[in-house]
């Protein structure tokens, strides 16, 4: 029988692959538009420990159906300092499990209904009025198109079995021995790395297996390579991010690589176990079934989906106890002196126990604001290029911003019904103090950036140092443990301005402008430091504990600020 390559193979295979990947995109976009912001918040909230991280990664990836999107999201949260490296490693482990749910769904025999359901949901998407209904319809349309595309690919690949020249090439990729197994794994990994979707690779493999072009054992071997190749996307997403974000991506690569390296020697044993297990899911996947007069292998996709699921669960269970080892090893990658400084993105004093009583919460907040100010003061060291100071100003700024948000949120949570006016004034004053501290941090970031960005001549450098000294002396008045001393007045800045204007003509105009702009930032810093001091004096900060009270007492109306 003569095969028309173009109409019988190329058109349905290319068209089916395009529809399959479009379905994946539609389903992912629809679900993420409905839930990704909520899922990101849930991830940041619940991924505090490794066990919670695995559960969160599995649950959220099972919903958004994209381990790639989940891993990239995790890398972004690590970069923002919201999630630590150790929980992030466990989240990535959970994401590998969650994405296998999609592989199982792809294996369902719903191909013939895919076009009908896709058309129905497409009409719903077009005529829907609300964004919520549109996103639901988009996700369901994508889900239906996945099966229709897979059905088209299977039909287009089936004629290849009657083409000896094609089968002779494909026969070189057979997982009959360890050499063939490794070749299949590497090929699938390269294909997945190119198209950035393990689900698409597994869908292609399922189509080849259903059509009988690939035997079921080789199809299963390709699923291992797909798990390995999907790590490339998270690595690419981390290229321009922080060191910890890169380490999270490296964890994804290492985790999947170790899993494949452990599974490959056990592959042929696991295949026999899978053959036995398939007895519960329809029988031997190597036995063909006649459908509409055509020989197909409908159980091959089931076997691939089942093996992928068990592989990821086994891999997670095996490596989860070593999460701490992963963290310690990865933490040494790219480490330098900057990482030995304190991590200011994570609060040290804002504990749940301290929040139970104003008498303990207020001192904790004041200590944390002090840490915020200490972190801000490091900008002056960065401006002077002190080796131990933060080298990446934007990364340090991000850490301080996260700390500021945590302080404000923690302080605002102290508002409870039944408080006195004095208690509410105290809480509000603490929020305003933190706001001044946050604005001061932004100003000092601007100071450091201007000093680092511009080159100054030998005549101008002493004036730049004098500006930094003046701001540093003013900052010393509000830092924790500062001795009581008057804050320097703005006259010092006025004097420096006169010196700038009196520089010789050898100093270039842009240098004069840069130093004058720096003085403007310094003046704002002086103003904010003064406002911060005034806010501290405006409402008494001492909150004595009532007689007989403990740290576990409730705060609503139980304490009063000192007079």
Automatic annotation (TrEMBL):
Topology in membrane: Multi-pass membrane protein
One Pfam family here: Na_Pi_cotrans
Subcellular location: Cell membrane
Transmembrane domains' residue ranges: 6-26, 46-64, 70-93, 105-127, 133-157, 178-196, 216-237, 249-271, 304-326
Chief location: membrane
Domain of life: Bacteria
Keywords attached to this entry: Cell membrane, Membrane, Transmembrane, Transmembrane helix
Name the UniProt record assigns to this protein: Na/Pi cotransporter family protein
């Amino acid at each position: 029988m003569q095969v028309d390559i173009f109409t019988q193979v190329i058109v349905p295979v290319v068209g089916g692959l395009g529809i399959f990947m479009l379905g994946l995109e539609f389903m992912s976009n629809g679900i993420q538009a409905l839930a990704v912001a909520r899922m990101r918040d849930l991830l940041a909230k619940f991924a505090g420990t490794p066990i919670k991280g695995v559960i969160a990664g599995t649950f959220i990836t099972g919903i958004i159906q994209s381990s790639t999107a989940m891993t990239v999201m995790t890398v972004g949260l690590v970069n923002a300092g919201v999630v630590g490296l150790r929980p992030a490693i466990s989240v990535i482990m959970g994401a590998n499990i969650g994405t296998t749910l999609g592989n199982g769904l792809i294996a369902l025999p719903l191909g013939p209904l895919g076009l009908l359901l896709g058309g129905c949901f497409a009409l719903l998407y077009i005529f829907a009025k609300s964004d919520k209904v549109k996103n639901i319809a988009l996700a369901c349309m994508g889900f239906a198109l996945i099966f229709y595309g897979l059905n088209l690919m299977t039909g287009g690949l089936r004629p290849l079995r009657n083409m000896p020249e094609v089968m002779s090439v494909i026969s070189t990729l057979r997982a009959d021995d360890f050499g063939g197994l490794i070749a299949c794994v590497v090929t699938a990994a390269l294909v997945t790395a190119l198209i950035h979707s393990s689900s698409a690779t597994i869908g292609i493999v399922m189509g080849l297996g259903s059509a009988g072009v690939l035997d079921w054992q080789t199809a299963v071997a390709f699923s291992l390579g797909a798990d390995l190749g999907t790590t490339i996307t998270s690595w690419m997403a981390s290229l321009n991010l922080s060191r910890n974000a890169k380490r999270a991506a490296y964890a994804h690569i290492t985790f999947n690589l170790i899993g494949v390296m452990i599974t490959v020697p056990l592959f042929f044993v696991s295949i026999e176990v899978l053959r036995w297990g398939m007895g519960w899911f329809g029988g031997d996947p190597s036995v063909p079934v006649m459908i509409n007069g055509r020989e197909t292998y409908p159980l091959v996709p089931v076997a691939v989906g089942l093996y992928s699921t068990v592989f990821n669960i086994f891999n997670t269970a095996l490596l989860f106890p070593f999460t701490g080892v992963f963290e310690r090893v990865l933490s040494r990658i790219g480490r330098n002196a900057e990482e030995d400084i304190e991590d200011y993105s994570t609060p040290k004093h804002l504990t749940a126990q301290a929040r139970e009583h104003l008498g303990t919460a207020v001192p904790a907040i004041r200590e944390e604001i002090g840490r915020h100010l200490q972190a801000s003061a490091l900008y002056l060291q960065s401006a002077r290029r002190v080796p131990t100071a933060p080298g990446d100003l934007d990364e340090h700024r991000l850490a301080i911003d996260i700390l500021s948000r945590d302080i404000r949120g923690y302080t605002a949570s102290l508002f409870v019904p039944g408080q006195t006016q004095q208690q509410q004034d105290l809480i509000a004053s603490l929020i305003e103090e933190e706001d001044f501290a946050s604005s001061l941090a932004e100003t000092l970031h601007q100071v450091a950036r201007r000093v680092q960005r511009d080159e100054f001549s030998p005549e101008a450098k002493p004036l730049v140092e004098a500006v930094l000294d003046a701001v540093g002396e003013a900052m010393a008045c509000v830092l924790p443990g500062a001795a009581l001393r008057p804050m320097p007045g703005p006259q010092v800045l006025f004097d420096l301005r006169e010196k700038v204007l009196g520089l010789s003509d050898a100093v270039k105009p842009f240098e004069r402008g840069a130093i004058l702009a720096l003085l403007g930032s310094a003046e704002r810093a002086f103003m904010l430091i003064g406002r911060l001091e005034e806010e501290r004096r405006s409402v008494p900060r001492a909150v004595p504990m009532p007689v007989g009270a403990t740290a576990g007492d409730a705060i609503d109306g139980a304490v009063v600020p000192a007079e």
